[in-house]
Amino acid sequence: MITKRIIPCLDVRNGRVVKGVNFEGVQDVSDPVELARHYSDEGADELVFYDITASVEGRQLFTDVLRRVAEQIFIPLTVGGGINTVEDFDRVLKCGADKVSVNSGAIRNPALIPEAARKYGSQCVVLSADVKRVEGRFHVFSHGGRIDTGMDALEWIRQGVALGAGEVVLNSIDTDGVKQGFDLEMLNAVTAIVDVPVIASGGAGGVQDFVTLFREAPGVDAGLAASIFHFGEVGIPALKQVLAENGINVRRIG
Amino acid sequence: MIAIVDYGVGNLFSLRCSLQSLGLDTVVTADPKAIRNADRVILPGVGAFGDAIDKLRATGLDQTVLEEAAHGKPLLGICLGMQLLFEKGYEFGEHDGLGLLHGSVVPMQGTIPPELKIPQMGWNALIRKRSHPLLREVKEGDCVYFVHSYYAADCDDSLVATTEYGKELTALVAKDNVMGCQFHPEKSGNVGLKILRAFSTVT
Prior knowledge:
The complex is a heterodimer.
Chain A: E1 5-13, E2 16-17, H1 32-42, E3 47-51, H2 56-72, E4 77-80, H3 86-93, E5 99-102, H4 104-108, H5 112-120, E6 125-134, E7 137-142, E8 147-152, H6 153-163, E9 167-172, H7 184-191, E10 198-201, H8 207-216, E11 222-225, H9 227-230, H10 236-245
Parallel strand pairs in A: 1-3, 1-11, 3-4, 4-5, 5-6, 6-9, 9-10, 10-11
Antiparallel strand pairs in A: 1-2, 6-7, 7-8
Helix pairs in contact in A: 1-2, 8-10
Chain B: E1 2-5, H1 13-21, E2 26-29, H2 32-37, E3 40-43, H3 49-59, H4 61-70, E4 75-78, H5 80-83, E5 86-89, E6 95-96, E7 101-107, E8 120-125, E9 127-128, E10 143-148, E11 150-153, E12 159-164, E13 168-175, E14 178-181, H6 189-199
Parallel strand pairs in B: 1-2, 1-3, 3-4, 4-14, 5-7
Antiparallel strand pairs in B: 5-6, 7-11, 8-10, 9-12, 12-13, 13-14
């Protein structure tokens, strides 16, 4: 049966990974290529590269980095950040990305989703949504979670999938950074209304949070996290060991 | 030399890089002569069956692939490229494939439990049905990466491995020098590289 995926997310600014600590055997944790190889060797099922660069020069560095990773790391690579046009899709896909996630760009211009899906296939288009509770409803936030669009998140995600998004990354602003576990209520609300894979993001504080995620939100396909992996709090082999012991089907390597 | 047939579908960057990382001479080409000169041929593909087979025929490379296969040259179809090896494809209508393998490509929808998502996207284990050189370094339970909504059916005579997704779906096929994998070996980590390396020496 298909396995639940574990996905480290790397924030890249001007060609360097923004945060991280030293791992054994990794000379330079801010080098995206070294870090990507480390995670791939450890059994990460996919990697997300998030471009938080603002400048044109930074964008160029990002695609250079992406190409170097894709030349050497042979697991699925997803790219997000600064994707506003089909040309942006083209730019990163040519450098070896397998999937591209859209967020603010699709909020501004929802037609980006069907345009990209027609050209590259739905499996290539990931809708990433930053969602927060506002007066008892789930609202979509844009611009890295800073601006309340006022849009109903469930309606937006349903629309995004209908437009052709083949996967959803749901980032709960409410649980992000709190390290008290994933937002199970929000995740279950989303998996109930879409039939594409849903990736949980925001809130992972330890191994047990992933066990709880896959048990309590069985419609979720993957767990994504950044800091707990980068700061070495959770190692992927140990995480997968515990998930397997809890009856959750994961890919083991070695 | 391994020739990757470039007929205008899909991104061949990772496939080329994965072969090069194994130290294998690789060319991405639409030139029939380069394909004829290669020792082995890979037929890639993503997208829809009908669109892809039309493009392959429009380039005339379908004939080159058929001729080289008939000469006994090892041929590996990947993902949609594997599906094209069969007789028929039923994605948006009925289409004739290359007919190198018996069987047809049919939708998962309606044949797997409705709670399972389509496409199957992610890592799933290979279930070996018979031994084959392509799997010589692959262990029981090893996972590979799938992205597909259709699968090859009625292909018992070429079936090598399946994967469990509501039912057993065709994952790897081989008949003499014609081979195909539904999954993406170039995205399947070390297991995928082992399969590609095995293809580079299979005779």
